[in-house]
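re: ur msg from earlier - yeah i can do the magnesium ion complex, just paste it... oh wait u already did. ok heres what im feeding in:
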Amino acid sequence: MGEHTVKAYGEALAELSNAVARMGGIVEQQVADAISGVVRRDTSLAQAVVAKDIRADDAHRDIEKRATRILALRQPLANDLREVIAAFKAAGELERVGDLAKSVSKRTLVLNQSDPIQITRSIERMGRIAQELLKDVLDAYTQRDVAKALAVWHRDEELDAYYTSLFRELLTYMMEDARTITPCAHLLFVAKNIERIGDHCTNVAEIVHYLITGEEIGRDRPKSDESTTPES
Amino acid sequence: MAEERAMHSLSMAAPTVTSAQTGALVDTATKVRARDVNVFYGDKQALHDISIDIPDRAVTAFIGPSGCGKTTFLRCINRMNDLIPGCRVKGSIEIEGADAYGKTVDPVVLRARVGMVFQKPNPFPKSIYENVAYGPRIHAMAKSKAELDVIVEQSLRRAGLWDEVKDRLNQTGTGLSGGQQQRLVIARAVAVNPDIILMDEPCSALDPIATAKIEELIDELRANYTIIIVTHSMAQAARVSQKTAFFHMGRLVETGATEEIFTNPRDTRTQDYITGRFG
Ligand SMILES: Nc1ncnc2c1ncn2[C@@H]1O[C@H](COP(=O)(O)OP(=O)(O)O)[C@@H](O)[C@H]1O
Ligand SMILES: [Mg+2]
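and the outut:
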């Protein structure tokens, strides 16, 4: 594709895309820290995640401002329009991922006040998958890689399946020993938050797919979360 | 002139043209059907193998860089090219299935069915009334002055100009503002009951408010007419049209639903043009 006749326009679009990539990096770090915080029972790390959420929020606002400015000044069309819409929407999804990382860390702070529960191993596994999904979908965005985006979109099922089995596992724990109910409930929310991070990665994958192809991915990905918990 | 024109209807042995190539909209009837239209100015070929279906009661936008042949193609539809010395048109253009270049077709009658609005408003240096009454008069559409009055009023109403000029119908048309003049020209085109209205950059000499009024008018007119508009404003094409055709260097590169063309064009040349890039 050729250069924009108006150079500043091309530069503004490139900067917008870079801003999304940068925000992705911030959120990736937040998720990584939130997961190790909960797995390693690291209170100061969890506190840092809560404190640093504002950075993701600022990055989100910055992207919205840039996108709005391009819309107002350039009236982008075709792939440029998709570029701006994608950045705007992806930033929103990433902001939610940042919020979920913060929620995980807030739960961590509470969890760390009671005895450790064996089940954190499953959380670790879920956390690893969520991080991989996030990394892959951000790579798909920066590399404009539609195959990678589709892979993320399909792989989210894995996370849903883990969540369902972890949900069952936690139920058994709580039934065995009523004293674990409080930490188990918190852990359940942690798992749900991680599962939701996967959902947002799926949304970003759909955005990347639209950005590159101009088409939506078929709407009917099988949902395998059978725990039927209400949304947390 | 007539001998030079080697127009032949290809409807018998029409080459297979898929709807993807011509951008046929499935849910609207085709008003104008062009197949393999080639136009020459002397030795110079201005259009190459243009095939397109223009839907009825819809606005079709022609976009593309200057000199790509948009005006030339518009002029094929109402046979204005007949008037240009050295211009030859080959291929077939059918309006409602009838060959526009058939032996029995009277170009004057055809041009009444296919009205045209140009870039610069060009009212006659006569009164507002006479500007609109001119066409109906030469086509003997009114039996009396009273009937003519009705046609003039209706046409001015359709062009959204009646309320602004009803008290000064005898003043000269050239005394109106640019936007009003352009609506007067549209009223003049509408007065002879055309099916098709061709507009060649109708807003390029107008300010944003006058432009907005014309765009609104186009949107109203599309309920009753087939409209083709040439425009250099991508935003305008996106706003007023349902179908868009992109011309480039005398060829029709891409046609499709306007929304599709402006969000997801298939051809990189279309994409480069509408996004303001040089390929
Ligand atoms: N009357 C004419 N005589 C010779 N060449 C012409 C004439 N009108 C247009 N052309 C040429 O035909 C090509 C297409 O012109 P035109 O249809 O006016 O393009 P557009 O409307 O897209 O700007 C251009 O190269 C132009 O120079
Ligand atoms: Mg022209």
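cool cool. The first helix of chain B runs from residue 19 to 22. ping me if u need the other ligands too
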